[in-house]
Amino acid sequence: MMVNALNAERIKLLSTKSPYWCVAIVALLAILFSVLIGAFASGDDSENIYASDYTTGVSQIGVIVLMIMAVLAVTSEFRFGTIRTTYQAIPRREVVLGAKAVIYGGLSVVVTLVLGIVALLLGKVLSGNNMDLVGSDAIRQYWGIPVYTLLCILIGLGIGAIVRQTAGAIVVLLIWTLALEGIIGIIPKFGDAVSPYLPFNNAARFLTERDTSIDFPWNAYGSIAYFAVISLIIFGLGVFFTKKRDA
Questions:
Q1: Which of 62, 63, 71, 117 is a Cys-bridge partner for 26, taking CB atoms 3.0 to 4.6 Å apart?
Q2: What is d(CA 106, CA 99) in angstroms, rounded to the nearest whole number?
Q3: What is the mean pLDDT of residues 1-6?
Q4: Structural domain boundaries in the chain
């Protein structure tokens, strides 16, 4: 059953335009930010640039685009009514969402892996700094961004399955990733207490591992593990609501 579900999701992926547009936008953002940062951070300034700065277009903005792609993978089926046909062919709904996670997650991992490497190479060449492309900071970007992206895809699929409506799901996603955690963080006392446990704060800490004012209760690898748990919970809730509600 899983093989059939994977084949079905692969066909959907390749036969719709939105994934192509999303990947193209991510590629454009990755290259654009890397070129801009590399070109303007020359000379002594380039030594203050981290490997994670060059990959900003991928890890901070591009990943959001890929999360929107994951949302659309679910909500578009509800919008056009094809979800009923999908569930008739594959009655086990958790298998359907699992197949989406494999296909869209796999695509996103490959895309961000390639673009992360390209972004680092471009940034280093244009800035002329002495960043070690096989150093620990760079290596963390090579594997860390794809892992982070995969977890974000699970969140996107989970939100899409819970909300079901495209506009609503994208609004929830954008508010959470772009504003909510920042707003919570500036609330006196409450923000200081809660910030170490906000998911995307932990993900950002893992990718950059810079000194921040947030007092995390664990190290950088604990942060990505915590983010993984939150991602799996949201995806699990998506599966739960999908099984409980009518198509």
A1: 62
A2: 10
A3: 82
A4: 2-244
Structure-token pair, residue 202: 């932990």
Per-residue model confidence as pLDDT tens digits over 139-150: 999 999 999 999
The answer to whether 76 and 60 are in contact (CB under 8 A) is: no
The secondary structure of the chain, three-state, reads: CHHHHHHHHHHHHHHCCHHHHHHHHHHHHHHHHHHHHHHHCCHHHHHHCCHHHHCHHHHHHHHHHHHHHHHHHHHHHHHHCHHHHHHHHCCCHHHHHHHHHHHHHHHHHHHHHHHHHHHHHHHHHHHCCCCCCCCHHHHHHHHHHHHHHHHHHHHHHHHHHHHCCHHHHHHHHHHHHHHHHHHHHCCCCHHHHHHHHCHHHHHHHHHHCCCCCCCCCCCHHHHHHHHHHHHHHHHHHHHHHHHHCCC
pTM for this model (two decimals): 0.93
